[in-house]
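Budget justification, computational time. The allocation requested in the original proposal was used primarily to generate structure tokens for proteins on the priority list. As evidence of use, we reproduce two of the resulting records. The first is shown immediately below.
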Amino acid sequence: MCQGLHFIHLVIDAVNRIRSNALNTRLFAQLCEENDKHFHQLLLHTEVRWLSKGLCLTRFFALFETILEFLDIKDTILKENLMKRKTDIAYLTDLFTKFNMGNLQLQGGSLNLIKTKFILSAFLARVKLMKQNIGRGEFSQFPNLSQTSCQEDDVSTYIQHLNALYSDFESRFEDILTMVIPPWIINPYGDIEETNVIIQEELTELSRNEELKVEFKNGYQQFWLQTTYPLLIPYYGI
């Protein structure tokens, strides 16, 4: 995380402060009721994982004012530090929401390398779009951030962070993102654009196979489980 956004420990400290004993938990629950909040528990666990951070930040920011009210009684220094970081917390809350969406897409038994490439490419495109939009003062992709008093210095920090995030993902997943996927893997019944003559022959024969064409309607992943044309069985984790 870029310089200026190393504050997650403040959020975790506040959560741990609330959960440190039963009295604090009851006091916080009472404040939630008084403020007509829906969340009586902030977090069930505070594991430092992206998904957990995302859920933690979403709940945390939704209860931000109530948390400040609680810390006004229990820890005024922590309260002041959190107040200074409200805009940053809002930014990361929105960003981790995007992370969670990507994480959910990367779960499930039907995932393969082709789908993984699509999900990662789409995420990078969203990061690029977020950077462009936030740079011109468009915060529609950052609903929580749009509710704060975001300054030009804050925007510069977030652009720097999004640039670093983009570069990190691009480098970390370079092998998947640069993977070339022949069009015939997705649609073996389309136009044949393949330089390998042997593969051309099998694709030509496959294109005339009406029985397999019916199976293709169930999706390319299931389709390539057949072994009628072994030379065409791709090596992309399908």
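The second record produced under the same allocation is shown here.
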Amino acid sequence: MVSLYQFNDKEICKELLLNQSISLLYRFESFEVDSKIIAILDISNYGISSGNSLIIHEKFGVFFDIRTTKELINEFYKLNGIGFAMSKAIYALFNFRHYMPFVFAYVSYMPMTGGSRNSSDWVGLHYIETYYQDNKSAYFTTVHGYKIKLNFPHGNLENRIHDVCMISEKSVSLCKILLQGGMMDLNPPSNTGMVRKHENCKCNKHQSLIQNTLKVDETTDRIIDYILIHLEIENLEAKELMKLYRYNLNKLKRLH
């Protein structure tokens, strides 16, 4: 991670980046969202002409992007083709309501604030080694040893990370089952950061996770049901129409 060498002895935060270190930054005109993003910082209210977001990237270092963090995070569908659909469906299984993460197997991005209609700071937990909360800030150390400070105005950081990791576990288990059907294995990367930190947790939420470990066909059916319900079909035949969609989707699973 040579591209972040200039921050070796510094705590990376908005104040540092937009003041004494702004000359070290650049604007990446053609950046394509990928899973090597460590964190995305919202600067849309700072009046910076160079961009609306700061991206901390494993390969490219720190740079400006003209898109808002909301626009960037919505492009995560390019990582898996389905974007937040799996995260939302799994989230709904546990009746979680707020702070929707982007989770796909071992890739997990957590928002620092709620409100899906607004821009927020995001952090990739698969790049985080340690963390702690102090007042209204969250402090992270990456697997590379870099320190990042983000605003965290509400909530308990430990609980928030726990819940995202739990959703990741469910995503991983589903991916494993799908691959096993094709005689393949899902092997984690050499370093998964925080993502596997709570695998041996015995809390009530994790007991619920175990109880909700469904067969692959049941899980995919639950995801399909979730998507159909949230299409918000509004007409007199909505129930019949959803039944037809569900029937046709199930037909796609079969040869004839």
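A brief technical remark on that second record: DSSP finds eight helices and eleven strands in the chain.
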